[in-house]
């Protein structure tokens, strides 16, 4: 049986083809088709699973609790892999399914989908749009037992309420391929997991659990964005003093927001220097955004020169600390951003620099 993969075929098109015969299913499986985006959303009484071949061009499956439904309700029966569902009419990009246990049904569906699309999952997002529960937590852990999810390098976790520490720890243990984590899960203040601080790229919001000890001794990532911490400016000063005395070459960018202010901040002990256009560029790329994102203007920020020659810059905003390391002193020539990406200084708001000016006068 002949089958040609066309560029405009959606995930749902391929799913429907796979349901036609075993031969077609095996043919599609042999193509090792990548999933550009996997999105799993948990709500009060249904789970929404969405997959895309191309960014944001999703096909979706809604798995509802079907307790009490049967064939007599005018809903036909469909078998997907080893799992039986009741379903209504299939739309072009979405299929409604009912199962007596939506979590069990969703896992069965995912196993079938991953058996069709055997390539890599490039990005996976998990959103809990209702109050987190033990059943939802266990379902998410079960999903991370599936090999394609374990191997995914880019993961986003979002929960609308206090998350289970045990769930997040289990997910981090299972996610063997994880390199970038966007952790939008409120966690208890006493939560701690060393793996999360060693990822290449980490975005965490809120992060009341992030401590001065984490910053000083446990943090070992490349790009780190931590928000809503209880840190004080003294922690950032200590971090910079430590950085200029070590040989750390891993960190590229660190951004931390905190519930405090910069009153009393001093730069004594830091090897500061003014920007020299011959030594580095005026702008630094946003390593958290897309290639088309605006760059950071670093014309009038503080530079820190380390003895091994590595150069860093830092700046302060009202409730945040920003620190970048110039592994490439001239990223504009390397990455060639458009002129519109090089943000002008007028669009920036910095913390009050009066303390530094007083110090310079001394």
TrEMBL record:
**What's the superkingdom here?**
Eukaryota
- The name of this protein is F-box associated domain-containing protein
Q: Which gene encodes it?
A: Cni-T05F1.9
């Amino acid at each position: 049986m002949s089958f040609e993969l066309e560029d405009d075929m959606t995930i749902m098109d391929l799913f429907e083809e796979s349901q036609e015969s075993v031969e077609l299913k095996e043919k599609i499986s042999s193509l090792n088709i990548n999933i550009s985006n996997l999105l799993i959303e948990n709500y009060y009484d249904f789970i929404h699973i969405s997959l895309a071949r191309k960014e944001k061009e999703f096909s979706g499956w809604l798995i509802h609790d079907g307790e009490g439904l049967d064939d007599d309700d005018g809903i036909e029966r469909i078998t997907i892999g080893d799992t039986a569902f009741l379903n209504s009419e299939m739309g072009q990009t979405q299929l409604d399914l009912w199962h007596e246990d939506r979590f069990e049904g969703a896992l069965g569906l995912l196993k079938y989908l991953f058996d069709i699309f055997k390539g890599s999952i490039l990005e996976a997002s998990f959103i809990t749009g209702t109050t987190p529960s033990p059943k939802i937590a266990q379902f998410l852990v079960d999903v991370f037992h599936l090999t394609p999810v374990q191997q995914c390098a880019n993961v986003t976790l979002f929960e609308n309420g206090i998350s289970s520490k045990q769930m997040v720890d289990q997910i981090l243990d299972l996610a063997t391929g994880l390199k970038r984590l966007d952790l939008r899960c409120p966690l208890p203040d006493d939560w701690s997991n060393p793996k999360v601080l060693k990822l290449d790229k980490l975005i965490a919001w809120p992060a009341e659990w992030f401590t001065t000890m984490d910053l000083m001794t446990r943090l070992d990532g490349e790009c780190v964005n931590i928000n809503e911490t209880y840190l004080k400016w003294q922690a950032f000063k200590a971090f910079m003093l430590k950085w200029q005395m070590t040989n750390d070459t891993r960190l590229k960018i660190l951004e931390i927001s905190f519930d405090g202010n910069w009153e009393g901040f001093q730069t004594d002990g830091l090897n500061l220097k003014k920007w020299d256009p011959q030594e580095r560029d005026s702008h630094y790329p946003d390593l958290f955004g897309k290639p088309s994102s605006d760059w950071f203007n670093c014309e009038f920020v503080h530079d820190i020169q380390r003895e091994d020659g590595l150069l860093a810059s830092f700046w302060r905003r009202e409730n945040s600390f920003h620190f970048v390391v110039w592994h490439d002193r001239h990223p504009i020539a390397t990455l060639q951003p458009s002129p519109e990406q090089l943000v002008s200084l007028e669009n920036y708001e910095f913390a009050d620099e009066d303390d530094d000016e007083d110090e310079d006068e001394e």
